[in-house]
Amino acid sequence: MNLSLSLFPLGWQHYLLGGLIIGSGTALLFVLTGRIGGMSTVFSSTWSYLVQRPFFQQGRFVDSRGWRLVYALGLILGALVWWLGFAGGVREATAVPAWQLLVGGFFVGYGSRLGNGCTSGHGICGLGSLQWPSLLAVLTFMATAFLTANLAARWLA
Amino acid sequence: MSTASMTLPKSLATLAAGALFGFGLSLSTMIRPEVVLSFLRFQDFGLMLVMGGAVLVVLLTYQLAPRLLERPLLDEHFHTHPSIWNRDTLVGAALFGVGWGLCGVCPGPAIAGLGAGNWSLLWALAGIALGALVQGIRMK
Known about the structure:
The complex is a heterodimer of chains A (about 160) and B (about 140). In chain A, about 70% of the residues lie in helices and about 0% in strands. Chain A has about 160 residues and is mainly alpha-helical. Chain A starts with a helix and ends with a helix. By secondary structure, chain B is mainly alpha-helical. Chain B is about 70% helix and about 0% strand. Chain B contains 7 helices and no strands. Chain B has helices at about 1-5, 10-25, 35-40, 45-70, 85-105, 105-115, 120-140. Classes of the chains: A mainly alpha (about 160), B mainly alpha (about 140).
């Protein structure tokens, strides 16, 4: 069997091109504003508008909450451009059950904030700045994600 | 602080950078939980290309920009964000992986997916927001 087809049954070009564009977004943010554009911090910094507890009122959240929300808004805008302009406006949907999205999401939120980074913070920005703690974090979450996804496929299917 | 740090050109630059990021997430179908889960189940290795492509561009930029430019085009200095390795990083990353493996959604796609009309991702978005809130409250 063709190797490329067995590794990438849906084709590989859109993955590589998409990855290069994601990187270009993070790179553009850095070149223009000097900011490091991880994604998960927005979920803590936005709570600082509503929750007065000292943890959320730290400078690193309060000072960055404005641009992080704008960055998140950009994410939605970019997906909208793709959806309307390149995907024929067929609405995206998922068959993953709501409870799995909610519970999985909870661990994603809790874990990424406790560990100070997610797939973009540790993965793209951390590896992109050659930081070994980020490499260890990526290896850790990849390992538990592989394990969970395969067990879930066996037990929940 | 917030007025000085959020001039209009900087806001537009941040919006444009986010839009590129969101477009890339959509084009690479990372906003589809099924595609992420099929990577985690070793059925489609596309996510490696997405991650590799993004890291390559960012690595080159983080290395070259501070050498070629005195400062960012719209600000005073380049930021750094040192990551640290401790118990919280280990436990946090491990829990993040459990959640990611369960739902196939990470923070970027949870936000971007809404732009492509995937309303189901609101469940994931709510879960992530709740998780971040509980984490912050437990830290006191």
